[in-house]
Amino acid sequence: MSMLQKILPVVISLFLSTALPACPETGYRLWLRYDKISDPVLLQNYKSSITGYVFVGNSPTITVTRNELKIALKGLLDCEIPELASPEKIKKKSFILAGTPSDSKLIASLIPLHGLAKIGNEGFIIKTVRFHKANIIIITGNTDRGVLYGTFHFLRLLQTHSNITSLNILDTPKIKIRILNHWDNLNRTVERGYAGLSLWDWNTLPDSLTERYTDYARANASVGINGTVLTNVNANALVLTTEYLKKVAALANVFRPYGIKVYLTARFSAPVEIGGLKTADPLDPEVASWWKRKVAEIYSLIPDFGGFTVKANSEGQPGPQNYNRSHADGANMLARALAPYGGIVMWRAFVYDDRVPEDRAKQAYNEFVPLDGKFMNNVLIQVKNGPVDFQPREPFHPLFGAMPHTNVMPEFQITQEYLGASVHLVYLAPLFEECLKSDTYARGKESYVASIIDGTLFNNNLTAMAGVSNIGNVENWTGHPFGQANWYAFGRLAWNPYENSETIAEEWIKMTFSNDQKCVEGIKKIMMNSRENAVNYMTPLGLHHIMYAGHHYGPGPWVSRGRQDWTSVYYHRADTLGIGFDRTTSGSNAVSQYFSPVKEIFNNPETCPENLLLWFHHLPWDYKMKSGRTLWEELCFKYYEGVDAVRQMRKEWQELKYCVDNERFEQVSELMAKQERDAKIWRDGCVLYFQTFSRRPIPEGLEKPEHPLEYYINHKYTDIPGLR
Fold first, then answer.
1. Residues belonging to the active site
2. Domain tally for the chain?
3. According to the model, what pLDDT value does residue 22 have?
4. Which of 66, 363, 648, 678 minimizes the number of CB atoms within 10 Å of its CB?
5. In the beta sheet, which residues pair with residue 410?
6. 372 with 334: CB under 8 angstroms?
7. pTM passes above 0.85
8. Are residues 360 and 318 in the same domain?
9. Are 98 and 224 in the same domain?
10. Is residue 14, in this structure, part of any structural domain at all?
11. Are 262 and 220 in contact (CB under 8 A)?
12. For residue range 491-541, what is the model confidence (pLDDT) as tens digits?
């Protein structure tokens, strides 16, 4: 063999390793990347602590859990970790032992019963114990789902480079039903969807089941989400036909091992539209009988079906009020059909009517509070976090705490309908946390929203939290790489509504980008400031619902045509005297829907938080703010601060190039450029429009808008995903 023949393979190998790029990072793996631990010392410590693993049990859930651990350990530790034989015979080895006490006498002997009694059906224990002169890590729960969640938690520890030498973790979800609402239509369009088409390919179901369905289930299970509503709240009755129920059943079969139940939206008029009845009156015996037969059919195909989400008598959707019946009449009729099977009804409280002269923010409270105590035990009233509609900032909904004899659940919007779609980087956990940690004073001080929805304040046994999904069929699931963080954060807060949004951000960054501390701190700073930045360049000081009509992307404070409660002028009420919606006791009196002292705090402009000032008050342009500026000046400064913050965010992102893969770095950089462009449009359009009422100059030192007001009124968006 010649010298050239000897060295050629080496040369080729070196060339391939240096000249060819690594596999491009698409974002498909979400936070379950399982790449090799970058710290060599930590890697060696992990390897010495995990020389093998033992799983007991053989259920479908244990099978998928075992597979997840096997794949994850191989990637994280960069070697094949063996599955060991019977644990009782293993000596002087540190290994993982996973399973339930009912499947393993050894686990039962090593984990105290009082610990298992605390974790319920979905909680878990991760504990390091001494066994045969070695440490073993036990991952256990009372059920296989507990083992599943415990395993994902353990993998999170590895991914975030945590210390695993002496573990003693006991964790259980504080909310029972943790559910994603997909606003997906049967034609695969997604209402308020900005990440491509629906995941659910109804044309190829039930025969074709893609790997993406399984990966969707894995991602949800990893953060504790245990339910999914497959279809839009603006429901299509066809999904309840036998043809579609077989398709739903196929998805349910994929999700079941991961502890995820499927739910459907129930169109209230389904008995007429697909059942051949002449009425959908909930008190009509034939209607009730039709729903009972339909529910029985569903459970024959999907034994663990979760139940229905219902949007009724809202924005044109049919409901019990069409027949002069109450929301309780409608919800209870469905609840009675579901009750024998353990199913639930999530009845949305998002109701308002432009024919009602009352302030839109008050209407849900007015309709539902008189019905407190009239709903069956398997009904939850699903309440948006704020009283209008998923705004960048709203006060907490007054229904939280106002229905002590009814199960109440929150609904958050993960998809960014009013917050820049999949273009703007807006980390939503601070918004969710702001609501969850609001003190309602429903039973005195420390009556937090979280304590209402987790059942502790009013001793409710049925608890739930819903999030409107931002997921589509694009490669990285959410369009914007940082949109994944909002999906992740929702799951973590649904598991524990007292969790901290900064802690959640740090977890996600480490699992998704890097464990480099400088990188983590840099990305976390961008994320934690992003929501307030967006509020400032969109709707500062309590302004709300001043978006472009229809698609809600971009400013539209000038929108005045059409249905009144869908216009912007209805909400900001700007005139030559001032700006803001008077909801005080002298105005619409929406403040009186809150408990004291919240009512009094909101009612007084001196004590009302300035970030909600114009939500509750119509104030003069020269009203003196705490900064010493006039209201007009403060409004201008907030808009300009928002744009400046986006510019700063772009600079900070550029400094992180060293620790982010090129694909996602460039994608985020391009999106941030659009975000700055859009923030300037928001700022300039709103400042110029409100200036027509204030008749005051833009404060000195602030850059002047590029174009006249007419330009912003006529501006069209042509490069925003999902806008129609």
1. 315, 389, 417
2. 3
3. 57
4. 648
5. 383
6. no
7. yes
8. yes
9. no
10. no
11. no
12. 999 999 999 999 999 999 999 999 999 999 999 999 999 999 999 999 999
What per-residue confidence (pLDDT) applies to 724? 66
Residue range 700-708: mean pLDDT, rounded: 96
Reported confidence tier of residue 579, pLDDT bands at 50, 70, 90: very high
Residue 213, C-beta contacts closer than 8 angstroms, at least 6 positions apart? 199, 251, 254, 255
Structure tokens at 570: 């209805």
Cα 516 to Cα 659: distance, rounded to the nearest angstrom: 8
Distances (CA, A) of 554 to 475, 535, 696, 716: 26, 13, 24, 9
Question: What range defines the domain where residue 660 resides?
Answer: 536-581+618-714
Residue 508 in contact with residue 485, Cβ under 8 Å? yes
Angle among Cα 214, 226, 337 to the nearest 5 degrees reads: 115
- Position 9 scores a pLDDT of 38
* pLDDT, tens only, 405-438: 999 999 999 999 999 999 999 999 999 999 999 9
Assigned domain for 326 exists: yes
Between β-strands 134-140 and 168-171, what pairing exists: parallel, antiparallel or unpaired?
unpaired
How would you class 227 by CB atoms within 10 Å of its CB: exposed for 0-12, middle for 13-18, buried for 19 or more? buried
CA distances from 626 to 608, 609, 614 (A): 12, 11, 14
Q: Is residue 261 in a domain? A: yes
Where are the alpha helices (H) located in 127-236, listed in sequence order? 144-159, 211-222
Q: Are 590 and 549 in contact (CB under 8 A)?
A: no
DSSP letter, residue 322: G
18 is a domain residue: no
Q: What mean pLDDT value characterizes the chain? A: 95
Q: Percentage of the chain surpassing pLDDT 90? A: 93
